[in-house]
Write a structure and sequence with these properties.
- By secondary structure, the chain is an alpha/beta fold.
- The chain has one domain: Alpha/Beta hydrolase fold, catalytic domain (Rossmann fold, 3-Layer(aba) Sandwich), CATH 3.40.50.
- The protein is 41% helix and 19% strand.
- An eight-stranded mixed sheet has the order 1-2-4-3-5-6-7-8, sandwiched between helices.
- The longest helix has 16 residues.
- It is globular.
């Protein structure tokens, strides 16, 4: 069921599945795409949970952007969605940017996050090499130099080798202006701030595609899992890249459901 709430000039669209009495899952997509990223997963996850899949401000149906895209504003949007549905807490499931947002949510609003599933996303607090620090700093400026068509096509190619996934990502990203894409990426990259002593205080699991080439995610995963007492696994799914939940939905759903079963 589709629902809409208005916040700061933006109609925030979200979709609710599953029974209201069941534990809640909040699904947060990556930068440039929308709730359809989860279209192959909602039915399986809704068997035992209430599932909320949203379009983040400026993405999908949640347009116009309204107030500028900031991490604080987007987190408040997501909390407002939970409040609208009278959900006290949820398992936050975030892919790429959505995972970066979920890491911040569990830290700033611990009472609203029961656990976290981080899907092919970078660690916000991991130490970075000099080259990685330069990449985080330079990426928004480099993106501004790309012609729009090249920016969109390059982004879609980097996400997946599968034509149908690339086509979806290209179509979804085409809704955003080039300036909006850069603003979203700049805000997301701004979350990467090395804090070697920080630990996530809620149960979480890392899931990524074995063929993902996004940033330093593959390198970070084992080290991240090893240092975190609350990490329940670093799961790599064969045959999938950055959009692992779309590319291998059955394996992804099984991994998520196994993690959720362990929370009971």
């Amino acid at each position: 069921m589709e629902r809409v709430i208005e916040r700061e000039g933006c109609p925030l669209h979200y979709w609710v599945s599953g029974e209201a009495a069941k534990p809640a899952l909040l699904l947060i997509h990556g930068a440039g795409v929308d709730h359809r990223l989860w279209r192959h997963n909602v039915e399986a996850l809704a068997e035992e949970h209430r599932v909320i899949a949203c379009d983040v401000r400026g993405h999908g149906c949640s347009r116009p952007m309204g107030a500028p895209f900031t991490i604080e504003r987007v987190l408040e949007d997501l909390i407002a969605i939970l409040d609208a549905e009278q959900i006290p807490d949820a398992v936050w499931i975030g892919q790429s940017m959505g995972g970066n947002l979920a890491q911040v949510a569990v830290r700033r609003f611990p009472e609203r996050a029961r656990a976290v599933v981080l899907v092919d996303c970078a660690c916000n607090s991991a130490p970075l090499s000099a080259l990685e620090r330069f990449g985080v700093w330079a990426a928004p400026a480099i993106m501004k130099l790309y012609p729009r068509k090249m920016l969109l096509e390059q982004s879609a190619r980097s996400i997946s080798k599968r034509p149908e996934v690339r086509a979806y990502c290209l179509e979804a990203m085409s809704l955003l202006s080039s300036a909006e894409i850069v603003d979203v990426m700049q805000a997301t990259l701004g979350l990467v701030k090395p804090e070697p002593d920080y630990r996530i205080a809620k149960p979480f699991v890392l899931i990524r595609g074995a063929e993902s080439r996004a940033g330093s995610i593959a390198k970070q995963g084992p080290l991240w899992a090893a240092r975190e007492p609350e990490c329940r696994g670093d799961i790599t799914i064969p045959g999938a890249a950055h959009c692992v939940n779309m590319e291998e939905p059955d394996a992804f759903d099984a991994a998520v459901r196994s993690f959720l079963d362990g929370l009971r």
